[in-house]
């Protein structure tokens, strides 16, 4: 198994991350959604990688330890006011 980042293009653009068999890597195929109908056809491209956590989700923009600390301090301050 390899890490994979799949991109579905069709009516909506969908991105999926996970694992796939090595034989499925770097291939493009057509997929029907929902699976039992012919209504919507998506083209899926699976791009594989082998580095540790190469398909991890990106962090939220603008988040850091400072913003987490500020949110924690604000929550504690509000809790003291309410008690």
TrEMBL record:
Its main location: membrane. InterPro entries: Snake_toxin-like_sf, SPACA4/Bouncer. The chain crosses the membrane at residues 65-82. It comes from the Eukaryota. This is UPAR/Ly6 domain-containing protein. Keywords: Cell membrane, Disulfide bond, Glycoprotein, GPI-anchor, Lipoprotein, Membrane, Signal, Transmembrane, Transmembrane helix. It is a lipid-anchor; GPI-anchor. It is found in: Cell membrane. One of its GO terms (biological process) is sperm-egg recognition. GO terms for cellular component: plasma membrane; side of membrane.
């Amino acid at each position: 198994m390899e890490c994979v980042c799949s991109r579905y293009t069709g009516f909506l653009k969908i991105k999926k991350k996970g694992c796939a068999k090595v034989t499925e890597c770097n291939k493009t195929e057509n997929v029907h959604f929902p699976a039992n109908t012919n209504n919507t056809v998506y083209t899926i491209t699976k791009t594989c990688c082998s580095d540790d956590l190469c398909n991890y989700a990106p962090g939220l923009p603008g988040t850091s330890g400072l913003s987490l600390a500020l949110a924690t301090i604000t929550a504690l301050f509000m809790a003291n006011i309410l008690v």
